[in-house]
Amino acid sequence: MTDHTAFLATLAGIVGDPRHVIGPGGDFEPYVVDWRGRYHGKALAVVKPGSTQEVSDVVKACAAAGIAIVPQGGNTGMCGAATPLGERDMIVLRLDRLNKIRSISRLGDSIAVDAGCILADIQKAADDIDRLFPLSLGAEGSCQIGGNLSTNAGGTAVLRYGTTRELTLGLEVVLPDGEILDGMTALRKDSTGFDTKQLFIGAEGTLGIITGAVLKLFPKPRARAVSFAKLNSIDAVLDLLAQARTELGDRIGAFEVMSRGQIEVIAENLPLVNIPFELDTPWYLLIELVDTLVSVDLNAALEALLSNAYERELVTDALVASSETQAAAFWKIRHSVSEGSKKAGYVISHDSAVPLSQQATFVTQVEKRIAAYRPDARIVMHGHIGDGNIHILAIIPGLEQNQKDQIQDTIRGINTIVDEETVALGGSISAEHGIGIANRERLARVTKPTELRLLRSVKQMLDPNDIMNPGKVLPAQ
């Protein structure tokens, strides 16, 4: 049996200060429970190394002792990937102290960062040199870039800039044996063999621990226009998207849709969020245009788009932000969907992406089938419809987030409905949130056997002793 006292002393020696190891009797709660309160785990310790070398030494110590490791960033994930679950002895490895901007280049449009950097701090560092790091999501004030990379986060700007995978030039990773893979390159072109960094982006800490990254920066937009529009159907939303692409091209920075039910949930549970219009249509659309030229009149372009859409009866009404304050208020609605929904009951959420040509069918079929299966479910929707990613939420009223055991059959039934429709329409069950523990069964149900064998082969090759975030992502055999 492992001598845990000696092992924890070894970890404290590695990180240089016992205060950076939270052992038995310490306050584990913030680190062993996911932010939605659904998964409650346990750990021998929470360890906070202060450098890549210390991460490497911690991993080596764990490997030698047979202790599993759960890497954790800001603990803002949606699928339980950062929670220590299972019967094995394991530690939580937090990256908070790896929080430095290593370098930044205005000429190279790149920034090198530690994995523990808060996303908002990276955005600010880019802004300070008149550049943009475009990854943006509701948790950006607390999530860490290592977690964003590990889940291949999407956010609201994918339509223009791509996912986190597409924003990454290089990575530094500590492998399961403690070896450091230094791929911190800022090169835009490199065809020297396999692109190994892609193995770790989206792997949710199951293949190694991301400790650093080189990320792409972009010219900072000089002009912006934001509007909220009302529409009567999802078909009208998609028609307007096609029209906007034709007229405005890559000036479309975001194209975010919300159902009336989704905004009603926000209004009911977050009274400080201002809803500046009457909720009298089934769909609402937030459009943002951006341009690097300050001389471009984006408000006029947006108004022309909406005026034409109104004449074609695609839009019933629209508001164009007259100030940055009003634009921020519009975005506040969009960024409040998770918090508002969480307060409305138990949320069975989905992260599907289907081809744009199938979006209307997907939305209609899923809503119809869930309503028939569970009539008391409150079905709401929101998402990044411009890139095909729409989130279906079935909210079960009267239940807390920690009461999932009471409705396991319902969760399984609704997931099956959404997955069947997603796969039938050529889609993916996870566009940006990942798999974690929550979606392992679903991944097994929808993934082709050949692909599953390949995923397991990669895991076995890199982590034969399964010490990296065991029990996550890959379905049990």
Topology at a glance:
Blueprint: H1 4-15, E1 21-22, H2 29-32, E2 45-47, H3 52-65, E3 68-72, E4 90-94, E5 101-105, E6 110-114, H4 119-128, E7 131-132, H5 145-150, H6 158-161, E8 168-174, E9 180-183, H7 197-200, E10 209-216, E11 218-219, E12 223-231, H8 234-248, E13 252-259, H9 260-269, E14 283-291, H10 298-311, E15 315-320, H11 324-335, H12 337-342, E16 346-349, H13 359-373, E17 378-384, E18 389-396, H14 408-424, H15 440-446, H16 449-462
Parallel strand pairs: 2-4, 3-4
Antiparallel strand pairs: 1-2, 5-6, 6-10, 7-11, 8-9, 8-10, 12-14, 12-15, 13-14, 13-17, 16-18, 17-18
Helix pairs in contact: 1-3, 13-14
What does this structure look like?
This protein has 16 helices and 18 strands. The protein is α+β, with helices and mostly antiparallel strands and 477 residues long. The chain has a seven-stranded antiparallel β-sheet with strand order 15-12-14-13-17-18-16, sandwiched between helices. A hairpin with a 4-residue loop joins strand 5 and strand 6 (110-114). Helix 1 runs antiparallel to helix 3 and helix 13 runs antiparallel to helix 14 (408-424).
Tally of strands: 18
Largest sheet, spatial ordering of strands: 15-12-14-13-17-18-16
Residue-averaged pLDDT: 95
Radius of gyration: 23 Å
Instruction: Report the major sheet.
Output: 7 strands, antiparallel
Distance from first to last alpha carbon:
27 Å
| Count of helical regions | 16
- The gross shape turns out to be globular
The helix content is: 25-40%
Which spans have pLDDT < 50 for at least 5 consecutive residues? Answer: none
How large a portion of the residues is in β-strands, by DSSP E?
Answer: 15-25%
Structural class by helix and strand composition: alpha+beta
